[in-house]
Write a structure and sequence with these properties.
Length: about 400
């Protein structure tokens, strides 16, 4: 869904009618791989949507090439680094090199479409390819075994978001977005929840920027923790699948640790992502009980919003077809790929090649995410949302390790 993020509703479209000044900048929403549209998409608070002119497929392909070529070049260098330093793999160097480039020479608008394509679609394809390494029976076994740790970390995260957010004085909608982004699947969860709770577009941008920062931190830090405490491939896969935010970062973190960890982590992540549906339904019910929102946003971007009658708004926001659309297509593709492998339709001799392609696509995606680093957005958000994200990041990691210890799965 993360990053880095793949959702059904884009952050720029997520807010109710508010003044145009609170519109999410296109550059901010695109940083984590979410499906946010460019600036030509519908403007928040405007009665008329600005629709980008339809371009032909060759035109779109030409627009993608420059940025994609840059991401491929960074990933190629990162792959060489990973071959010489196997402990870090290729995804971590890709993200670091990309971020350094972004900080020194910010990629311009000409590169943006290709970078966006690499950080979203190519990453999603890598997740589908991971399914070719599993069988349906194994996926079901791993998913069921992960439920105690996965549900426990989710409950801890949402409770901690409420508590820490209140202590830090962070508005309700913003702490909700950061909480679900940390607890479920990063940018995808934020994009799915934001229209349900009628979040202001500024809150969406702040939450996405905060989640992105700790996605990168997880890719860099968690493999080192795993090696330091001697975690097995399966234990680390469960740790990454329950403690890392965005799907992109789960895949990158676990791939850095090992192929078996990546296969385990993506199944755990699949089950965790399905929690978007009950969470959205629950939040829709809670939102229906608050007919008026007195204010939202933080700092000088705070705005006043008056909602429509809650019952009508909620029914329009959350219908059964919309609930089904909250499940990302690439997770469905992952299950289908595992089904094809279970049926023996994927030759066993091709598994190694498919895995190498998947690992390289992860490196390309993380390189693109690094190239998308948006320091100004984090600076604008101020310290409180970032502090909340940091506290939740540490809390969820400790909860995952603690629950694994209690359930005997930490080995």
């Amino acid at each position: 869904m993360n990053a880095v993020t793949h959702p059904s509703a884009s952050p720029a479209q997520a807010a109710p009618a508010v003044p145009a000044a609170s519109t999410v900048p296109a550059a901010s929403a695109a940083r984590v791989g979410s499906a946010a549209p460019p600036a030509s998409a519908a403007r928040v608070g405007s009665a008329t949507a600005l629709v980008a002119p339809t371009r032909s497929l060759p035109d779109r392909a030409r627009a993608v090439v420059p940025g994609l070529a840059l991401a491929l070049a960074v990933a190629a260098v990162a792959t060489v680094v990973g071959q010489h330093v196997p402990l870090v793999g290729s995804a971590v160097p890709g993200a670091v090199i990309g971020a350094i480039i972004a900080l020194i020479i910010k990629p311009g608008a000409r590169l943006a479409p290709g970078i966006k394509y690499a950080s979203t679609f190519l990453l999603q394809c890598s997740v589908v390819l991971l399914g070719t390494q599993l069988s349906i029976a194994e996926a079901a076994r791993v998913g069921m075994a992960s439920l105690p740790v996965m549900l426990g970390t989710l409950a801890v995260c949402l409770s901690a978001a409420w508590l820490y957010g209140r202590l830090l004085g962070i508005p309700r909608d913003l702490r909700t977005l950061i909480g679900v982004g940390t607890g479920i699947c990063g940018g995808s969860a934020i994009a799915a929840v934001s229209p349900v709770i009628e979040a202001a577009s500024t809150d969406v941008a702040y939450a996405i920027s905060t989640i992105f920062l700790f996605n990168i931190a997880a890719v860099l830090v968690f493999p080192l923790i795993g090696h330091a405490i001697g975690m097995s491939q399966q234990s680390f896969g469960l740790f990454a699948g329950t403690a890392v935010n965005d799907t992109s970062s789960v895949v990158a973190t676990a791939t850095t640790y090992g192929a078996a960890a990546a296969n385990h982590a993506i199944v755990v992540k699949l089950v965790r992502t399905l929690m978007i549906i009950p969470i959205c339904l629950g939040l829709a019910g809670l939102t229906a009980r608050r007919p008026v929102v007195a204010g939202t946003g933080i700092g000088r971007d705070a705005v006043a919003v008056t909602t429509a009658p809650a019952s009508a708004a909620t029914s329009a926001r959350m219908s059964p077809p919309r609930a089904l659309r909250l499940v990302p297509w690439f997770l469905i593709g992952f299950v289908l790929a595992a089904g094809l492998n279970s049926a023996g339709l994927i030759p066993s001799g091709s598994h190694g090649s498919l895995q190498r392609v998947s690992v390289f696509l992860v490196a390309v995606a993380l390189s693109a995410i690094g190239l998308s680093t948006n320091v100004p957005a984090l600076r604008k958000a101020g310290p409180r949302p970032v502090l909340l994200g940091a506290l939740l990041w540490v809390t969820v990691a400790l909860a995952s390790l603690g629950l694994q210890t209690l359930t005997g799965t930490l080995r």
